[in-house]
Amino acid sequence: MTEKLFDASDGMTLLDGRIMRLREVARANNLDAVVVSHLSNLFYLTHLRTSAGVLVVDVNDDSLRFLLDFRYQTAATARIRERCGPSGLEVIPVTGSYEEAVAAVLNSTSVTRVGLEADHTSVRQWQWLDRHAHVSLVPLVDLVERLRMIKDEGEVAILRRAGRLLSEIVPDIMALAARKRPEVEIAREIDQLVLEAGFERTAFETIVASGPNSALPHAHPTARKLSDGDLVILDFGGVLDGYCVDISRTVVVGIADAECKRLYSAVQEAQRAAIDKVIPGESAEQVDAAARDVLDSYGLGEAFGHSTGHGLGLDVHELPRVGRKQASAEPVMLESGMVFTIEPGVYVPGLGGVRIEDDVLVTSSGVERLTYSAGELMGT
Ligand code: GLY
Ligand code: MN
Ligand code: MN
Questions:
Q1: Is the pLDDT of residue 2 over 80?
Q2: Cβ of 94: how many Cβ atoms within 10 Å?
Q3: Given this model, what pLDDT does residue 9 score?
Q4: Which of 13, 32, 235, 302 has its CA 20 to 30 A from that of 162?
Q5: What whole-number distance in Å separates Cα of residue 279 and Cα of residue 277?
């Protein structure tokens, strides 16, 4: 991870800018403090990678307390000494449970309305804090996630580099499907190529889904050997400097029959239509609708049962969701700096499926593709 990046606008450090924006949103929600415990959010705000921890962000003053257990205290203290964290970050040792430590910190201050991450706080933790912290708890949905949705220059630079690295290995990965071996073996070799390309790890369990298995959108690789005429979905991704990229290609083993070609053309056209809709001010729902309309026109609407895409960043699935309107989620309007996948697919039980997935960045004037290459249905 690049250290001490600066926010171009005012010379403030990158992390100070993130904390400042979090405080602004919290203040707009009449909160006195925000308790952050989701690990990707903690990393986003502190650049410290931990497997546990809680950040208590006071909204009305500069205090920024990072509650950490023994495993991370030394590392965090060293990073603060090197001035790699946000200004004012203070490590608070946790010796018992995290809930006890959070309650003790909150009770030692004058805060009254405290936001907790609704999607990352268990019912047990909420109940315990409700009983022991003398504050009023407010559920927060996507507060940090919405900040993370707009990537800054440094994040875009990493995602661009990651997209290029992943794209460059696509031809080699597509060629792996030629040798009629079991899906699991091909998946292992894909993982190897992803690591050799320079990624620190794979972004998720690689999917190699052949023949009838390709009709299962998130199939796990099996011992099934690829055979002539199979549609094969290859879906893989890598993590670079903490950021995830994600791509899918579909190939045919041997000669593609007319129906495979039809499915492929439909998905390819749907993907193009969706990418063409990516422009600031457009809604994510409209991008989804563009892909869905094309597949409907091929009579394949029912075969496309998932969303068109998802945000990418520190998590492989994050905001924005590029899908149909959901009653439980706020609609998203596209803004410059958003990064997400466009991955329409069709799945026909018994026959197979096709998915084509690429990663895009919303720019001030439209769209930039972060992944590319080898778009045609390839007989192998
Ligand atoms: N590989 C998971 C996804 O495409 O969302
Ligand atoms: Mn994806
Ligand atoms: Mn994928």
A1: no
A2: 24
A3: 45
A4: 13
A5: 6
Does the beta carbon of 235 sit less than 6 angstroms from any atom of ligand 1? yes
DSSP 229: T
Q: Is the shortest distance between the CB of 246 and ligand 1 below 6 Å?
A: yes
What average pLDDT does this structure show over 235-260? 96
Task: Give the model's pLDDT for residue 328.
Answer: 86
What H or E segment, with its residue span, contains residue 56?
Answer: strand 54-58
pLDDT at site 330: 85
Q: Is 112 helix (H, G, I), strand (E, B) or coil?
A: coil
| 270 in Cβ contact with 284 (< 8 Å) | no
Split at pLDDT 50, 70, 90, the class of 327 is confident
pTM of the model as a whole: 0.94
201, amino acid identity: R
Cα 88 to averaged position of ligand 1 atoms, centre (Å): 38
Q: How far is the CA of 167 from the centre of ligand 2 (A)?
A: 14
Cα 89 to ligand 3 centre (Å): 36
CB count in 10 Å sphere of residue 91: 20
CA distance 173 to 158: 22
User: What whole-number distance in Å separates Cα of residue 49 and Cα of residue 39?
Assistant: 8
Q: What b/e sequence results for 8-25 when a residue is b if at least 16 CB atoms lie within 10 Å of its CB, and e otherwise?
A: eeeebbbbbbbbeebbeb
